Amino acid sequence: MTYARDVGALARKDLLLELRARDTLPAMLLFVVSTFVVFHFSLPAHPSRLAASGLLWVAILFTALLGLGRAFVPEREQRVLDGLVLAPCDRSAIWLGKSIATLAFLVAAEVVALPVYALFFRPLSGAAVLGVALADVGICAVGTFLGAMAVTTRARELILPLLFLPLAIPIVIGGVGSGAADSPGRYLGFLVLYDLLFAVVCWASFEYVVAE
Questions:
Q1: CA separation for the pair 147, 134 (Å, rounded)
Q2: Burial level of 20, CB count in 10 A (0-12/13-18/19+)?
Q3: Which of 48, 51, 80, 200 has the highest count of CB atoms within 10 angstroms of its CB?
Q4: 141 in Cβ contact with 155 (< 8 Å)
């Protein structure tokens, strides 16, 4: 119960800060909608299902990077990152709380972005929406972990994409397959396996990342 309270408090802190500052979510919304508008006017009127699914995942990944890049920045700018690490709670709770908050931002952006995508390109199937949901978990789990590594570097805006994008390739494969394949079940199972594997790895090793 104590662990759950710590996670809830950390996630609530980030959500309240975003509601007050309005830094991350508006930027994510503007970016993803602008990306779809550019794709709409620069590509053929009726792209194939595979091409349209690929465009969706390009937009989602780079939108997520905006949120992930800001995950630890408030603590870094206010010079309270060390205090957060030294707080009397399990350090993995920091990762989980940050992941939940980032997931909330990403889902909020997708609530607007997915209808825009359906309007410009093609409606999403139920399997595609489920693929987006499963991929969001993996994106936020891995991205938050890497964001904690990158925030202490001088070139965090460069380091985070370099670390994150190679690890996101399986997410893209699973996400595109869930939206474009005739039998999306195996791609959804692949995303579930990815989420479970990397969630356990990030949860178990986060303490060593922030201790360095």
A1: 20
A2: exposed
A3: 51
A4: no
Q: Supply 64's token pair.
A: 């997520």
Written as six digits, the tokens of 27 are 């930027």
Cα pseudo-dihedral 107, 186, 179, 48, rounded to 10: 150
* Among 69, 63, 26, CA closest to 158: 69
Show Cβ contacts of residue 135 under 8 Å, excluding neighbours closer than 6 positions.
Answer: 57, 60, 171, 174, 175, 191
Distance CA 101, CA 144 (A): 10
Q: How many residues does the chain have?
A: 212
**What is the number of other CB atoms lying within 10 angstroms of the CB of residue 67?**
26
Measure the CA–CA gap between 197 and 44, rounded to whole angstroms.
38
Residuewise pLDDT in 10s, the chain (212 residues): 688 888 888 889 888 888 887 878 888 999 999 999 998 888 777 777 888 888 999 999 999 998 888 777 777 767 666 666 676 677 788 889 899 999 999 999 999 999 999 998 888 888 999 999 999 999 999 999 998 888 777 777 788 889 999 999 999 999 999 988 888 999 999 999 999 999 999 999 988 877 65
Cβ atoms of 57 and 176 closer than 8 Å: yes
Q: Which two structure tokens, joined as six digits, stand for 140?
A: 């936020």
- Residues 6+ positions from 29 with CB-CB distance below 8 Å: 108, 109, 112, 113
